Amino acid sequence: MSDAARHFAEETQGEPAGAGRYVRVDEVASAEYVPGLTFRPVLGEGVMTNFVHFAPGTEAPRHVHEEEQIVIILEGEMSFDLDGDVRTMRKGDVAVIPAWVPHGAWTTGTSCLEVDVFCPPRKTLLALAGAQEPAARVAAADRQEGE
Length: 147
Fold this sequence. Notes:
Blueprint: H1 3-7, E1 31-34, E2 37-43, E3 48-54, E4 59-63, E5 68-82, E6 85-90, E7 94-97, E8 103-106, E9 112-119, H2 126-146
Antiparallel strand pairs: 1-2, 2-3, 3-9, 4-8, 5-6, 5-7, 5-8, 5-9
């Protein structure tokens, strides 16, 4: 079997972990933990994606956490401190942060839109993400009825 055939195999090797769903990021309620830093988390079964917007002149303070994190820059730019290695990140740049590695980020004169992927889901965002799931399902059902 080729790599492509293995990658796109349709034969199941287990039971589905849950029902799939669609989410519109702009319909996800946001939280602002630091002024100018907006989070919109989307929770899966074992992973979380957090859509983050930095306004110009905003800082996410240096911190650590037990979850592995991948940061993907979608728009704009920001300075990123990965355990003392500070770089300017722009669209298409990615940072991989293992558990417990110190990191922080800030913008100066520009805004930045980025996506954080957490595995397992970030504990401090679980309540926000969990509260939004039923609302996202209702919105999706309403859209389906209208089609």
